[in-house]
Amino acid sequence: MDFLTLLQVLDSSVRLAIPLLLACLAGLYSERAGIFDIGLEGKMLAAAFAAGAFAAVSGSVWVGLLAGIGASMILSAIHGIASITFRGNQLISGVAINMLAAGMTVLIAQDWFGQGGRTPSLLTEGRMSPITLPFAEMFQSIPLFGPTYKELISGHSLIVYVAFAFVPLTWWVLYRTRFGLRLRAVGENPASVDTAGVSVIRLRYTAVMICGVLCGVAGAYLATGLQAGFIKDMTAGRGFIALAALIFAKWRPWYALWACLLFGLLQALAVRFQSIEIGGVVIPVQLMEALPFILTVVILAGFVGRAIPPRAGGEPYVKER
Amino acid sequence: MAAPATPAPLALELRGISKAFGPVQANKDISISVRPGTIHGIIGENGAGKSTLMSILYGFYKADSGEIYIRGQKTSIPDSQAAIAAGIGMVFQHFKLVENFTVLENIILGAEDGALLRPSLAKARKELKQLATEYELNVDPDAMIEDLSVGHQQRVEILKALYRQAEILILDEPTGVLTPSEADQLFRILDRLRTEGKTIILITHKLREIMEYTDTVSVMRRGQMTATVKTAETTPEGLAELMVGRKVLLRVDKKPAQPGAEILKIQNLRVIDESGVERVKGIDLTVRAGEIVGIAGVAGNGQSELLEVLGGFQDATGSVQVNGQELPLTGAGSDGQARRAAGIAHVPEDRQKEGLIMEFAAWENSVFGYHHEPEYQNGILMDNKGILTKAADQMERFDVRPPHPHLAAKNFSGGNQQKIVVAREIERNPDVLLIGQPTRGVDIGAIEFIHQQIMNLRDQGKAILLVSVELEEVLSLADRVAVMFDGQIMGERQASETDEKELGLMMAGVSGAQKEAI
Asked: Where found in the cell (chain A) (predicted)?
């Protein structure tokens, strides 16, 4: 593998990691507050559809982005009402959201656009345009650094940089602010927050809505950044991989970044090398494509160290007598 | 000394507080006055309404009627925030701490000074130092809560309240989880707080604490305040009678034991839990026929694991013999059913998780663990009618109230749930009875009954292994006491030849030999 191929693989790893990273951070906020969210997938899908549809109709990627965030937040609100207000089972609510999104997106898309459940292909202005960082051309002649800067660091859309910025931001919010302290506390022992005179319900809703915003951005990026429009089931399990990454990352922002980059790399390898020959044995493409999911299973089975989830996760808060 | 009119306003006054949950009247027209700078005890059985009353005071529930006055001011407390603002601090029985936060983080949680943590933490650190010297409340501000002893965790709860400028401190059953020496320390701190003018409300079911440490005491029974008296003018017997509504025998009627043959013999027993920590570190213990051996110790020193091994739901190494028969400690034949077949009956420590299925009816619960036995079968079906009849009879004899076998276990009070479990295990006529925390969360009336049942079983010549964190209970029931600390037995004493002081030292890890050196 020459240097340029390596750069290209890494470059596509980054792009493929972005929706995972955004969804993973979305899940982090929600789960750190004690609300398990397996509906990341559904929220991303709904956001991807809304972003694709509104970007196509309006011709503006920003309208699309807002529509995606809106759609995702509506589903988040449903999850919040079911699991916080009505103290329902968070897993069931999440499953319901995934099914709702899978069905409704295709149904509405078909009714609206009549293109077999997809949204019209987006033209340039409906898509997120890459940003060329300053000096990209100037540095090009510098060996190693020049191409790395141009291919890998520069030339991504705004969302990519925003997503990366969200990693330190999330760390800062969690560990350096009052909101973060309360958020972490409410996921560990909501009674401690409640007896301190802080509303558990308000905190948890805030977390769930932040989760909605980030999932919305992730979905919008899928439809208007990675691809040019919404197609049926385009999230393709990314919400679940993001969940696996979250567990792998032990619910921490920096680890989440590395976990998502790893999954992005696996996906990029599968895209780039349809078949790999190692010592005369040809590894079929199907195996390459299955790699992220195999890793997911390995992680969830607990082979990669013990991950302790937030202690109050999944349990609705009921004041005890 | 007949109640002089105090010039200072009352620290706290409740007038006619009532609260109903559906048809259950948890608090009925409760009035209470607490003078500042005193320790006021509230005593009553489980379900008497103490916790409800305190929850109203802390803004968890809204009273249906009645008024709250704080320092003479009528105050409404719609939520905990209002309670804190009114200067009320609460130390719950189950601590409300975030286990993987530091002490400092727990202290500022909800009382931060701004959106950023750094200044709040710095301020709290300074204030903590001051509180530590002022009240002798020393805790490492950077320690993780989960690394602290229970006693220190409780201090953090007290510090939390003081950091929020609490003037009235409510403690709900504060000594339930403490060693005797930790409890002594707590009361020293409370005494100090009282001298500094703080008002303390102590909720407990332990008569001894009320008698020793409070200035005044209010007794609650079935949602009502039956009396408020000066502690100096009352007796434990008088209080017990006010609590239960009838005369209660506070001491167990114990004849000298007649120990017979060795029934249960434990040698070099070791338990390693799932996370690889050695919980029981080589225990030797025997229990003879007609003898109660009590295991004293602070919760979490390996007693639970010992019971679990003997009860058949924890693997171990070493040797356990019953009537000379070696019991397998791992794999096949080491489960609960095999243990019951070997003549071991088990009243587990946590009756709600291990002793009963809370959603199931009392009659179903009355045969769990023995339901496969031929006498409960009717062909391939269960003999439900027969079981029901037996359960009804059992409940009658064990004084389970209400005696309704169709009622779900969760609808009985703690004491009556325990009677259902005790009845089930004792009725099987076992050779060995394991009994963990026999009277945890059980009211005084039921304690008397359960203790009597255990004593009767002993006098029938059974071997009984009792585990309890209530030192008083161990001392009054057991013939021989073994103290566990850090997975080991620190020593054995004849119950008649030791006292709480000596056992308390052993519970804190000071062995008999070391004690003599002191």
From this structure: Cell membrane
> Number of structural domains, chain A?
1
A-chain residue closest to B105, CA distance: A181
Those residues whose C-beta lies under 8 Å from the C-beta of residue B275, and which sit 6 or more positions away, are none
Q: Residue B329: in which H helix or E strand, if any? A: none
Question: Which range among A246-250, A266-270, B28-32, B512-516 shows the weakest confidence by mean pLDDT?
Answer: B512-516
Sequence-distant (6+) residues with CB within 8 A of B372 are B337
Q: Among residues B89, B16, B21, B24, which one has the least CA distance to residue B54?
A: B89
What is the SS3 assignment for A47? helix
Phi, psi dihedral angles at B66 (to 5 degrees): 110, 165
B109 to A181: CB separation less than 8 angstroms, yes or no = yes
- pLDDT tens-digit readout, B12-27: 999 999 998 887 788 9
This model of the complex carries an ipTM of 0.89
Comparing C-alpha atoms, which of A311, A316, A319, A31 is closest to residue A189? A311
CA dihedral A113, A118, A119, A121 (to 10 degrees): -120
Instruction: Say if CB B416 and CB B351 are below 8 A apart.
Output: no
Domain assignment of residue A219, given as a range: 3-124+154-300
Which positions ≥6 away from B292 have C-beta within 8 Å? B257, B454, B458, B464, B465, B466, B477, B478, B479, B480
Task: Please answer whether residues B43 and B241 qualify as being in contact, where contact means their C-beta atoms are separated by less than 8 angstroms.
Answer: no
The size of chain B, in residues, is 518
- The whole-model pTM stands at 0.81
Q: How far is A67 from chain B (nearest CA, A)?
A: 31
Question: Is the Cβ–Cβ distance between B307 and B355 less than 8 Å?
Answer: no
* Cβ-defined contact of B99 to A311 (cutoff 8 Å): yes
| Options 1.10.10.10, 3.40.50.10420, 3.40.50.300, 3.30.70.100; CATH of B262-351+430-517 | 3.40.50.300
Residue carrying the six token digits 């007038």? B15
* CB contact A188 to B (< 8 Å): yes
| Lookup: tokens for A299 | 């992680």
The Cα–Cα gap between B300 and B469 comes to 10
Which tokens sit at B304?
A: 């639970």
Span B222-268, pLDDT tens digits: 889 999 999 999 998 888 888 888 777 777 778 888 899 999 999 99
| Inter-CA distances, A119 with A65, A107, A239, Å | 15, 11, 21
In a 3-state reduction of DSSP, which class is residue A157?
A: strand
Q: Which of A171, A181, A183 to mutate to test the interface with B (most CBs of B within 10 A)?
A: A181
| Torsions phi, psi for B463 (to 5 deg) | -95, 130
Please choose, from the candidates B157, B108, B163, B155, the residue with its C-alpha nearest in 3D space to the C-alpha of residue B136. B155
Q: Which amino acid is at B410?
A: K
Distance (Å, whole) CA B410 – CA B355: 12
What average pLDDT does range B129-149 have in this prediction?
90
C-alpha B108/C-alpha B164 separation (Å) is: 9
Q: Is residue A9 part of a domain?
A: yes
Task: Report CA-CA distances (Å) from B306 to A195, B437, B515.
Answer: 36, 13, 26
pLDDT in tens, B55-104: 899 998 889 999 999 999 999 999 999 999 999 999 998 899 999 999 99
